[in-house]
What does this fold into?
Amino acid sequence: MFDITKESALIRAEEKETGRVEAFSDGVFAVAITLLALDLQIPKIGAEATAGKLAAALARQWPAYLSFVTSFFTVLIMWVNHHGLFKMIQKTTSRLLFINGFLLMMTTAVPFSTALVTQYLRTPAAKVACATYAATFVLISISFNALWRLVTGDRALMRASVSELTIERVGRKWRVGPLAYVIAMLLAFVSPYITILFCTGLWIYWSLVTKEF
It folds into this structure.
């Protein structure tokens, strides 16, 4: 006879095993996305401030707004994809924890690379700043793909309800990531602005992957 109590206990155990990883990861994503806002500075225009001077000072900070929006939505969609991935996972291993840890480490580096873009986009150092920005996402994409390869290579880590079609679709789309961000990194030496636009286009692309979960 089918034991409902035993089945329910098994489901709760699986949820608990991945729950700690997800909770910790969610906290890191939340901190990273919050730190991005710290780069938005209040203009200092002195005691003789006027509406016109304030508006002009705010307008001059457009690199901060551009990099903030690009990074915010990129990290947001990373979190959504990470959440979707862990809905498929039922067990964890030490390898999974270390790969996930590396992914989270690189996520916390996004505010740093974003600040580089904000500060140097309108200077001769813009190429290096934007290349560093894209390089951060190269490593993040590699981490996502490493996690995906690990869990799809050992189906015991995945829930039985995950279809082969879903695995193929997600894997095919995520494989684009590392190469795409390498291209974005190299494009920085052609035009830093192209790199930022390219990265913006990529977070729009990643938003489409979330439909697979």
